[in-house]
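Quarterly update from the structural biology core.
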Amino acid sequence: MLEIKKTLISPLPYLIAITIFLNPLIITTQKALFFPYKLLFLQISIFFITILFIVSKKYYLKKRNPNVLIIIISYVAYCIINGLANHLSFYSLDILSYLLPFTVLFLILSQLNIKDIDRKLFANSLIFSFLISIIPGYFLQKSSGKSFARLFLNWGNPNFYGSYLLIILPFILYKWKISQKKWENVYFIGMFVIAIIILLLTQSRGALLSLIIVCFLTGLVLIIARRKFKYLIIFGISFFIIVVGIYYGFTKVRSNTVIFRERIYISTYDYIKDNLWIGTGLGTFAAYYPKYRQNDYKLVGQEDIISHPHNEFLEIWAETGMIGLTIFILILIGIVYLFFKKLKHLSGEAKYFLLASFLSFSLLIIHNLFTITMRQSAINVYFWIFAGFISMDYKDRTFKKYYKTKNNKKYLILFVIPIFILLLSQNYLTIKAMDYYTKSKQEFQRKNLKLSIQYAETGLQYLPNNSSILYHLGYAYYFIKNYNKALYFFDKLLEVSPYYPQAHYWKGFIYKHQKDYKKALTEYEKELQLNDYPEVYFKMAEIYHILGNKEQTANYIEKYLQKIVQKTEKNLMQSKNAIIKEKQDKINFSLRTLEEFYKDNDKKLNELNEIRNKLFVEF
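Predicted structure, tokenized:
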């Protein structure tokens, strides 16, 4: 009868811990392949976790609170239906490839009965993967040739690394709190300081602001709960430092990113208004956003492709409408409800682990009010892991109870096996396509254009609707003067992404070389609706000059110069000198042409002289 008192040792938590441990360590130096490789690792790992979950018999709970699970299943089902109903549904596969496996991982975690040894195992896997990733990450960033002005190590982006550091911090505190030896206390305090220093080096203001918000709310709770004067004083001083720090951080350090976000939020609001209830389909934000963004984006130096609105809630709203956003918020409410429900009945180590899980979960959600890290599979997986940690059963169980417990409902998860295989196949195709696309860009830079095209077309066979590859093939064929092929790929691109930046510009450029000036002007006009870019006006002026229309030539050259002036005044990324140096020949040509055209018009000549002074006096 002694064996009945033994607790079951489950292999499943160890496989989950290995997944958590290896996630930050699966790296590749090719940025285009960075996240597909991480996703492939996670898909395979969760696949084996699922198989083990199905075949195991002795350590799952008989009865669970199904409310959160039902909401999550509803959310995933709605996203799938919403994506399939949209004519751009192939975009949805990228997100479904991690949304479905990660929700399955949540389901499995929520069914586990966890002992203190398992909790410590999960925390250790998080912390030690962070420590081990620092040195190889340092050399990876160094070998990539990128500046250390902002630290990102093996995460490819400082904001991704900032998000990762945020979710590590609460578990370091958890280990510090439960440590029983003095050297362990010192060790974890030192580790916490190192993590904070690295977080500062990322210069991720969104991550720092998220940490500040959580600390602020935690302090407020302590004041209310403890009702001690010293907490009020500490809270007041901290609040003052926070306000000053936020003001300095968002107005003095890279203020351009704040302006860019503000512009994106305004445009996204217009996007949402047109697609309020059901959205445009999962994963389609990048395809539809150019229709709504402010068309002077080139003048301020904003990037061509805005793939995310830097706010997870806005993106969910834009893509899945008010219905999808409401269900997602219900998921968050359900997780928070489970947290407070469990918190009342726990104490000691279990309570601290639950608190750490909830803090990491909260930090990730708050950070994604300012950034896009949850759209990356390597970060998004933590959202579902921590939600699973919060949903677990924390009660101690004996071997006898485990052995007698049956959970036939777990066999319902069998239906995800073919889906896993499909998603693994899809991600394999993505990796192959991105591999060839990366090679294609490298050969293009080496000016091996035919080989570049060959690689890109091979990549397109794996992902026929990939907009980046289609765009690359369009301009690659232009450079070898195969204009018909170039037009074919740009037309195909516009079928996939109707508002793709500069697609119409390239088509106008090609039609000009084919001497089809009417079509060229039409394409340039379409481009101007999406992109009020100086170069477009100059190209239109060239066509009118060829057609012998001097008045229109002067009109568009004048508009070109006006846009150059605006660019020097608005641009947040380039200095005025850099812009003038880049465009100096065209500016001088434009001024000479207009001075000749307006030689008898003193008013126009004075205006041109003012433009010359604005552009060249300081230059």
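Residues 1-9, 398-406 have pLDDT under 50 and may be disordered.
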